[in-house]
Write a structure and sequence with these properties.
Number of helices: 16
Number of strands: 16
Oligomer: single chain
Structural class: alpha/beta
Largest sheet: 8 strands, parallel
Radius of gyration: 20 Å
Strand order of the largest sheet: 4-14-13-12-11-10-6-5
Length: about 375
């Protein structure tokens, strides 16, 4: 099946309600993708993810290339069969790893030469190789190879990086052959509006079925991220999905949808869950803290997920302090339920192109986040 995006409500600006049609079924947008870096969303089974309402998940090309290897996944029947997930999968390109593993790599015009973080072995990733690996993995959506630059970066470097990312996108486009897999381009340009515009216009000319905005949420203030989004998203075709990479806090999801983002992914809910922090309607709670040792209320009194119906903050704290694996599972389950429920409410509100009901429902959480920002500023 050929990939297709159906825009149901909304347009170039503001909240949008849509549907992705993929080889493994439809996906309602706006959507949040849980991250399954190594072909697993840590601590949860595919059946649990499905029960939570997850429809589209993300896997990491770089990590799966190194271990177990693309050939192994292909021999297993592709990533869906290998990890026992029947829904759609998006694979990233490894561009973020080029950013995050800066001490282990060297960027060249042809590609990126790097040493494995696992065993120190040397590898050379080119745009063609990245496409080849993603085609072997068999994901429904693949991403072009790009350079994700740090914040802040000087304008001269950003210009060179945009040129490189655009050239790599052309090469990815030429190398891509799977008709049942969509290839998305990634708009870069740092915080510079003129470079974002230059990147977007060049990539739109190449006519990709979807476009991502990369290189944000890498340390810049959130307000600056929103300003870049407001400038960049109108440059992208209204009839193609828009994917904001690496963003997953509840406040950013609301602000992103408000500006016209269709897709999100982030390790945040699973990572902070494994470290003892949970989302609640009144803000984040570090449930490991001593103050919850005799708190027998639900983790989030406003939540009706399995965890909040059956366990208490005191019990979760006990599990974390005792080093029990169940702590990681329960906190992860709750956090993903929190975000996926938020996305469901955002989809409903986007049908009316009005997010005020969601903002009102999550007002206490959003105020808590604003207070945190003010504290950091002082």
């Amino acid at each position: 099946m050929t990939f297709r995006f159906e825009l149901l409500h909304g347009g170039p600006l503001g909240p949008r309600r849509g549907r992705l049609h993929t080889a493994h079924g439809p996906v309602e947008t706006p959507v949040f993708m849980p991250v399954g870096t190594q072909a697993t969303v840590k601590t949860l089974t595919p059946e649990e993810l499905e029960a939570l309402g997850a429809r589209l998940i993300l896997a990491n090309t770089y990590h799966l290339y190194l271990r177990p290897g693309a050939d192994t996944v292909r021999e297993a029947g592709g990533l869906h069969s290998f990890m026992h997930w029947n829904g759609p999968i998006l694979t990233d390109s490894g561009g973020f790893q080029v950013f995050s593993l800066a001490k282990l790599r060297r960027i060249e015009e042809e590609g990126v030469r790097f040493r494995s973080h696992l065993d120190g072995s040397e590898h050379f990733l080119t745009p063609e190789k990245v496409v080849e690996v993603q085609e072997a993995l068999g994901s429904d959506i693949a991403m072009c190879f790009d350079e994700c630059i740090p914040y802040p970066s000087p304008i001269e470097y950003v210009r060179q990086s945009v040129d490189l990312t655009t050239a790599w996108a052309r090469r990815c486009r030429r190398a891509h052959t799977r008709s049942d897999q969509a290839l998305f381009a990634i708009v870069q340009g740092g915080i510079y509006h003129e470079e974002r515009e230059r990147s977007a216009r060049a990539l739109v000319e190449l006519d990709f079925p979807g476009y991502a905005v990369g290189g944000l949420s890498v340390g810049e203030p959130k307000l600056l991220m929103y300003q870049v989004l407001e400038h960049t998203l109108p440059l992208l075709p209204a009839d193609r999905p828009r994917y904001l990479m690496g963003v997953g806090s509840p406040d950013c999801l609301i602000e992103g949808v408000e500006r016209g983002v269709d897709m999100f992914d982030c390790v945040l809910p699973t990572r902070i869950g494994r470290n003892g922090t949970i989302f609640t309607m009144t803000g984040r709670v570090i449930v490991r803290d001593a103050g919850y040792a005799r708190d027998f209320s639900p983790p989030d009194p406003a939540c009706d997920c399995y965890v909040c119906r059956n366990y208490t903050r005191a019990y979760l704290r006990h599990l974390f302090k005792a080093g029990e694996v169940l702590a990681l599972r329960l906190a992860t389950y709750h956090n993903l339920h929190f975000l996926l429920t938020l996305m469901e409410r955002l989809r409903e509100a986007s049908e009316e192109c009005d997010l005020r009901p969601v903002r009102e429902r999550y007002a206490a959480y959003l105020q808590g986040q604003r207070n945190l920002v003010k504290q950091r500023e002082y």
